[in-house]
Amino acid sequence: MTGRCLIIGMAVLLLAAACGQKENVPAPVPVPVLRSITVLQDSLVLADNGTVELPFTVKDPDYTFSSILLQTGAGTPPEEFAVQQIVPSEGAGNYTAVLKDAGLRKKYNRQVYLSISQRNADTGVESVVASAPFKVVSERQGPETGLPVVVVETENGEEIVSKEDYLSASLRIFGVGEYENLEPVSCSVRGRGNTTWWWPKKPYAIKLDQKTSILGMPKHKRWVLLANFMDRTLMRNLVSMKVASLTRLDWTPRCVPVELVLNGKHQGSYLLIEQVKVDKNRVPVADDGYLLECDFHYDNEVQWTDPYGHNNQWGNGIPFGVKYPEPEDITPEQLSYIQQYIAETASVLYSEDFADPENGYAKYLDIDSFVDYWLVFEVMCNHELGNPGSVYMHMDPGGRLIAGPCWDFDWGILSFYTSAGENNLVNAKAIWYERLFQDPVFKEKVRARFQELLPQLQAIPAYMDECEALLTESARLNFQLWNPADDRSQNGGNIINGDENLSFHNAVKRLKDNYNRHLQVMAGQL
User: Fold this and answer.
1) How far apart are CA 276 and CA 141, in angstroms?
2) Are strands 43-47 and 134-139 parallel, antiparallel or unpaired?
3) CA dihedral defined by 33, 37, 38, 39, rounded to 10 degrees?
4) What is the C-alpha separation between 134 and 112, in angstroms, rounded?
5) Where would you tag: which of 145, 442, 498, 525 has the fewest CB atoms within 10 A of its CB?
6) Is 343 exposed, middle or buried (0-12, 13-18, 19+ CB in 10 A)?
7) What are the pLDDT tens digits along the chain (526 aa)?
8) How far does Cα 264 stand from its chain's mean position?
9) Shortest CA distance to 290 belongs to which of 344, 243, 341?
10) What's the start-to-end Cα distance of the chain, in Å?
11) Peptide bond into 218 cis (omega under 30)
């Protein structure tokens, strides 16, 4: 008995030991499995090229992941926006998805959901866990007109009230698929213009911190947003620059119609245009050269009046101002040189032998440029050549005076209200041209050049049709904001162009009719 009891006791002890060892084996740790995704908002608004946060939770909180997808009901990702990043939030299982607009300038109202695919480590089977659907809606910063949208934000939303003082700002541009987008860049902005600054719709000058290409135009810091407030067609400057681009002028400002959004508010249809500046991509003047402006407003810092008796319509001499060199850079010697050159040019022009091919005016003026410059003003019925207003010339020392570039074609353009263009030439007596046309050689050069350009000039009405189609929706919205007939406030109570009270389409038709009519006048009188 004793032996048998010993054996049984040992068996009990071994069994107990074995049981004790089994109790010390750790249980297997379950692999976290994503069971659900719960979004905490059912609707989001995304600004153009902006971001928005979407908080969400997951069950199981121990499940970790680095990415999550957006899907539409069709099972494909939306093209207009995407998940930029996933950020863990406070508390287990809490996250924030940052959604970013793709910058496509499209309106959207999408129902989407968050989803993630996971693979079972044991079976290899994939499963997809998705959230409930939620809505993502675009917030547009400008109207859908087909034109690029220029967005200017001043620092702290400060209002632009000065033509002299710049405000710090940022500029971004949405190219609407036609042009490359411009991501936000630092700039300064101020008002600009003479009469145009006092109208309700303001023009602006933009100075970028760095030279930048905008809407396909060459890099530069200086740009202008023309308001075209008084222009019911919204295309007078646009068409005029097109005509000027057909000529031999050294440079014509490039421009693109745009929508302007200033501090979050749509300001209407504008023309983004290169500012007249000396530069390798703009007015080609040497470092020691000159850019001059003749303007009856007498608002240049460095200016004088031509002492000879060839008066403008105000009964004064011709006002000359120096735009380059800058006022702070021009030396007394440089100013003396250009003043003497202008005086000598005028003296020779009004002398008895002014038409002498060697010692007459041709020695001082680049004739081809003066011919083409006159033709642009005349074709467009721009009487400002005779005021003169915004009339430019440039030259290098040792060279001749060159006409151009063209600028500021809105007041009275192709309007028989402000000129005799319906039956007569408009600029035959403008400043120096009255004397130049007394030379049969000069007049023949003008006539021959007009005939040479005529086929291209006759195609301009078709270009106006293209502009009309491009600007139709922009015009509709613009004239809901502004009434161009208010320009009478700066013109003795009278409207200026004569089409301010017409519809956009009727104003364009009038512009084309006047253009064709004046081409006939030019053909008959040159």
Assistant:
1) 29
2) parallel
3) 150
4) 6
5) 525
6) middle
7) 444 443 334 333 333 444 444 456 565 556 667 778 899 988 787 877 889 999 998 887 666 665 688 988 888 899 999 999 988 888 888 989 999 999 887 778 789 999 887 666 666 666 778 899 998 877 666 788 999 999 999 999 999 999 999 999 999 998 988 899 998 999 999 999 988 999 999 999 999 999 999 999 999 999 999 999 999 999 999 999 999 999 999 999 999 999 999 988 899 999 999 999 999 999 999 999 999 999 998 889 999 998 764 544 545 689 999 999 999 999 999 999 999 999 999 999 999 999 999 999 999 999 999 999 999 999 999 999 998 999 999 999 999 999 999 999 999 999 987 778 899 999 999 999 999 999 999 999 999 999 999 999 999 999 999 999 999 999 999 999 999 999 999 999 999 999 999 999 999 999 999 999 999 999 999 9
8) 16
9) 341
10) 146
11) no
Under 8 Å between Cβ of 232 and 188: no
User: Do residues 130 and 109 lie in contact, with contact meaning Cβ atoms separated by under 8 Å?
Assistant: no
- Rounded Cα distance between 258 and 270, Å, is 5
Strands (E) in 354-398, as ranges, are 391-395
Q: Which two tokens stand for residue 399?
A: 């060279």
CA distance 47 to 54: 14
Name the amino acid, one letter, at 130.
Answer: A
Q: How far, in whole angstroms, is CA 26 from its chain's centroid? A: 70
- Omega before 405 cis (within 30°)? yes
φ/ψ of 488, rounded to 5, equals: -65, -20
- pTM, two decimals, is 0.78
Rg of the chain in Å (alpha carbons): 36
Please name the amino acid found at residue 14.
Answer: L
DSSP bridge partners of 154: 169
Please name the residue ranges forming H helices in 176-251. 236-245
C-alpha distances in angstroms, 10 versus 7, 21, 207, 355, 450? 5, 16, 98, 138, 126
Token pair for 483: 């009434």
Reduced to 3 states (helix: H, G, I; strand: E, B; else coil), residue 465 is helix
In angstroms, rounded to a whole number, what is the distance separating the alpha carbons of residues 244 and 399? Answer: 23
Residues 109, 130: Cα–Cα separation, whole Å: 20
Looking at residue 497, its amino acid is N
What are the E-state strand segments in 315-465? 319-324, 391-395, 402-403
CB 340 within 8 A of CB 483: no
